[in-house]
Write a structure and sequence with these properties.
Layout: E1 3-9, H1 17-28, E2 32-38, H2 47-56, E3 61-64, E4 78-79, E5 92-96, E6 99-103, H3 105-118, E7 125-129, H4 133-144, E8 149-153, H5 157-169, E9 174-176, H6 182-186, E10 191-194, E11 218-221, H7 230-237, E12 241-243, H8 245-261, H9 269-276
Parallel strand pairs: 1-2, 1-3, 4-6, 7-8, 7-10, 8-9, 10-11, 11-12
Antiparallel strand pairs: 3-5, 5-6
Pathway: Metabolic intermediate biosynthesis; chorismate biosynthesis; chorismate from D-erythrose 4-phosphate and phosphoenolpyruvate: step 4/7
Organism: Pseudomaricurvus hydrocarbonicus
GO cellular component, one term: cytosol
Length: 280
């Protein structure tokens, strides 16, 4: 009998997460059935009801992506991993008995991807664009990695303020940045982090003014479709050390698999190189 799981999101038809999860299951010698629950073309799609429906249909668990991560928070009765509840969003749900347990593998996956690419280098001062579900997870991960200051920009001011307060409770210095301050703050930070959808095939553009890129040391883009966004291209051209959305995708996917199955998988160069060939 195979474990039934899926990725729930909107506009995810091009996602390679099912391929990754089936690849990991083959390496581990177990059977899974992993599909997609795409709300993009479903009239009146309700992520809360769809999670409840999946649970009643015998699903073992779900991964959740944009734009539903924060919308399903209230369904979670407890964390799979202690401490993840403070993040305020979940991207991994596990159904156990009558409970829905949650974890945020964007948090753990970013930490793994960051250390894989940058070793023990401290993040320094960082500017994040996007304080939604993935933005909160990455901000908490940067706090865990020892970021000295995190500046937050979001087109929804209340969302940025909420994240600032959460970071201050963790003891991380943070501030909310307004749109007319963005370029000036960019010149003061060590790292630029895009946690918006800008740059995706369906949302072209850049959250950061491209002309202000170059004085920073490193950058991260949560977008991986395409792998080379305009933001990433400009950062690489400026000689910055770059973490791509692929880095987050592969490591959070491995973490999710381990949480679902209890089987540890080594994120070695062969696995990473193989998965990289699946993206376009």
């Amino acid at each position: 009998m195979s474990l039934k799981m899926a990725l729930m999101g909107s506009g995810i038809a091009r996602s390679r997460m099912p391929r990754l999860q089936h690849y990991l299951s083959a390496l581990s010698g177990i059977a899974i059935d992993y599909g997609l629950l795409d709300g993009e073309n479903v009239t009146g799609f309700d992520p809360v009801k769809r999670v409840q429906q999946a649970k009643s249909e015998g699903f073992y668990g779900l991964n959740v992506t944009h734009p539903y991560k924060q919308k399903i928070v209230d369904l979670v009765s407890g964390p799979i991993v202690h401490g993840h509840e403070a993040i305020g969003s979940y991207n991994t749900l596990k159904f156990e008995n009558d409970e829905i347990l949650g974890a945020n593998t964007d948090f753990s996956g970013f930490i793994s991807g960051y250390t894989f690419r940058r070793g023990d280098r401290a993040p320094g001062q960082v500017l994040i664009c996007g304080a939604g579900g993935v933005g909160r997870a990455i901000a908490f991960a940067l706090s865990e990695l020892g970021a000295s200051h995190i500046a937050i920009f979001d087109v929804v001011p209340g969302q940025a303020e909420s994240l600032r307060e959460a970071l201050r409770e963790r003891g991380t210095e943070s501030e909310v940045v307004l749109s007319d301050q963005l370029e000036a703050v960019m010149q003061q930070v060590d790292g630029l982090v895009n946690c918006t959808a800008l740059g995706m095939y369906s949302h072209p553009g850049s959250a950061f003014p491209l002309s202000a890129i170059g004085a920073q040391r490193w950058a991260f883009d949560a977008v991986y479709t395409p792998l080379e966004t305009e933001f990433m291209k400009r950062c690489k051209a400026a000689g910055m050390q770059c973490l791509s959305g692929f880095d987050l995708w592969i490591f959070q996917g491995i973490d999710a698999f381990q949480l679902f199955t209890g089987i540890e998988v080594e994120a070695n160069n062969e696995l990473i190189s193989t998965a990289l060939t699946w993206l376009d």
